[in-house]
Amino acid sequence: MARFRRWLRWLLALFVAFALIGAIAAGALYYVVSSKLPDVQSLRDVELQEPMYVYDSEGKLMAVFGETRRYPIQMKDVPERLKQAFLATEDARFYQHDGVDYKGVGRAIWLLATTDAKRVPGGSTITQQVARQFFLSSEYSYTRKLAEILLARKIESELSKDEIFELYLNKSFFGNRAYGIGAAAEYYYGKKLNELDLDEMASLAGIPKFPSSGNPISNPERARQRRDNYVLQRMAELHFISQAEADAAKAVPMHAAPHEPPVEVYAPYVAEMVRQEMIAKYGGDVLNKGYHVTTTINGTWQEAANIAVRDGLMLYDHRHGWHGVEQHFDVAADADAATLARQIAGIPAQAGLLPAVVSATHADGGISVVLADRTELTLPAAASRWTNRTPAKLATRGDLIRVRAGSKEGEWLIDQLPRGQAALVSLDAESGALRALVGGFSFAGNKFNRATQARRQPGSSFKPFIYAASFDKGFNPASIVLDAPVVFRDRRGKTWQPQNDGGGFRGPMRLREALVQSRNLVSVRLLDSIGVDYARKYISEFGFQEAELPPNLSMSLGTASVTPLSVARGYAVFANGGSRVDTWVIDEVKDRDGTVIFKENPAMACRGCGGLSGPGAAPVAQVVDGFNFGAEAAPAPAPKPGSATPDASQPPKPVNPDARTAPRAIDERTAYQLVSMMRDVVQRGTGTAAKVLGREDVGGKTGSTNDHRDAWFSGFGGPFATTVWVGRDDFRSLGYREYGGKAALPIWIDYMRVALKDAPVARNDPPSGMVQATLNGATEWVKNEDLDRMQEFDFEQQDQSADDAAFDIF
Question: Which residue range or ranges hold the Penicillin-binding protein transpeptidase domain (predicted)?
Answer without folding.
Answer: 424-706
